[in-house]
Write a structure and sequence with these properties.
This protein is α/β, with parallel strands linked by helices and 404 residues long. 42% of the residues lie in helices and 17% in strands. It has 2 domains: 134 residues, Aspartate Aminotransferase, domain 1, CATH 3.90.1150; 224 residues, 3-Layer(aba) Sandwich (Aspartate Aminotransferase, domain 2). The chain is built from 15 helices and 13 strands. Helix 5 packs parallel to helix 6 and helix 13 packs parallel to helix 15. The structure holds 4'-deoxy-4'-aminopyridoxal-5'-phosphate (PMP). The site of 4'-deoxy-4'-aminopyridoxal-5'-phosphate (PMP) has 14 residues, from helix 5. GO terms for molecular function: 8-amino-7-oxononanoate synthase activity; pyridoxal phosphate binding. This is 8-amino-7-oxononanoate synthase.
């Protein structure tokens, strides 16, 4: 069989199982909206939690940054990088309460690069089963012994840590701070305590926590700071710039030694073209805006509370999430697709998430909230959801009861 014939057969099978993924081409994206096929829509599908992707100050800084050139023209190590990269790294280190930070071109690259640099054959990596794909792939590629534990089950984590201890070598525990498809936070204080007891290093992926939550002293640092944890408990903090910062790229923050070591050994940092200087300039402006404007986080929190109240009143199948990620668990793929299509026909973009991104039987609408949404937009979505979901819930998703 030719490659083309084999691929056609596999694609047909994917279509028949309702798992075929289709790309949307947007004509514009005025936060929190999108223009699709000439129609203005309200987007509840982006990770632009603070509305910074279209913030005038961020865009102006990015345009100014482009004066340095459209691209970085080579890897950071080969061609050097600009002062703006250094300024961004310093700002990220300060925002996360770490000594230093290193920017990567994406969160995927940051996770893969950091994990593979830190552990290898003879070591162990212990991961939550619902970790993001980039952590899972990093664990696989590292060649360390890969041990997984049931989602946020600290008893299961303790058992895997005991197993890892018998293997000798170093142990890295890697978890999402906020789970990207469920929106729940990892029990980081307990996880950090177990890491301390078992002499394991903790790495937290703050892709969805950075910019959104933190402590009084470090309000945008993410979920670990919100749980009262610093560098001692979480020596490897990864965050992305493509979500609350509304831009692109990512970073790892930690001790000076960690950052120096990653520059030497993180292959996804070394062997890839550097972050464009304009992106670094835009991301730096976004970090400054998020630090200067706590009202954005307050507005986001108000929107989350408003959505959850309205969804609970309408009996929608909410999950236990206090983050901007508010999935409605519907169970079967076909229902998710038809409800998402109906919402689109009413002018709302929501994520339709199916296996293999989530476990079989847990297909869901992934609704994400932003500080840029108005209460009226959220109410309109809730009304549309109420109508679209009437009589369509199937499987386990229908029966869940969660407090607002
Ligand atoms: N980690 C998590 C938890 C994520 O949700 C994502 C993005 N979906 C990533 C890492 C990857 O980040 P990026 O999009 O910058 O590659």
């Amino acid at each position: 069989m030719t490659l083309r014939a084999i691929l056609q057969a596999r694609l047909t099978e994917r279509r028949e199982r309702g798992l075929y993924r289709r790309l949307k081409t947007l004509e514009a994206a005025p936060s929190p909206g999108a223009v699709l096929d000439g129609r203005p829509m309200v987007a509840f599908s982006s990770n632009d939690y603070l509305g910074l992707a279209t913030h005038p100050e961020v865009i102006a800084a990015q345009q100014e940054g482009a004066r340095l050139g459209a691209g970085a023209t080579a890897s950071h190590l080969v061609n050097g990088h600009f002062g703006i990269h250094e300024q961004l790294q310093d700002a990220l280190a300060a925002a996360t309460g770490r000594e230093a930070a290193l920017v990567f071109s994406s969160g995927y690259a940051a996770n893969m690069g950091a994990i593979c640099a830190l552990i290898g054959r003879g070591d162990s990596i212990v991961s939550d089963k619902l970790n993001h794909a980039s952590l899972i792939d990093g664990a696989r590629l590292s060649r360390a012994e890969s041990l997984r534990f049931a989602h946020s089950d600290t008893g299961a984590l303790a058992r895997q840590l005991a197993r890892a201890a018998t293997a000798g070598g170093n142990t890295l525990v890697a978890v999402d701070g906020v789970y990207s498809m469920d929106g729940d936070c990892a029990p980081l204080a307990e996880i950090a305590q177990l890491c301390r007891e078992h002499d394991a290093w903790l790495m937290v992926d703050e892709a969805h926590g950075f910019g959104v939550m933190g402590s009084e002293a470090l309000p945008v640092a993410g979920s670990a700071a919100a749980a009262g944890l610093g560098e001692e408990e979480v020596p490897v903090l990864m965050g992305t710039l493509g979500k609350a910062a509304g831009n692109a790229g990512a970073f790892v923050a930690g001790s000076r030694e960690l950052i120096d070591y990653l520059v030497q050994f993180a292959r996804t940092y070394i062997y890839t073209t550097g972050m464009p200087p304009a992106v670094a300039a835009g991301a730096l402006a976004a970090v400054r805006v998020m630090q200067r404007k706590p009202e954005l986080r307050q507005c986001l929190q108000d929107n989350i509370a408003h959505f959850r109240r309205g969804a609970a009143e309408r009996g929608l199948p909410l999950c236990d999430s206090a983050s901007p990620i508010q999935p409605l668990l519907l169970g079967c793929e076909q229902t998710v697709m038809s409800v998402a299509a109906e919402l689109a026909s009413r002018g709302f973009l929501v994520g339709a998430i199916r296996p293999p991104t989530v476990p079989a039987g847990t297909a869901r609408l992934r609704i994400t909230l932003s500080a840029a949404h108005t209460a009226a937009q959220i109410d309109a979505l809730l009304d549309a959801l109420g109508t679209a979901l009437t009589g369509t819930l199937c499987g386990e998703g229908a029966a869940r009861e969660v407090s607002p």
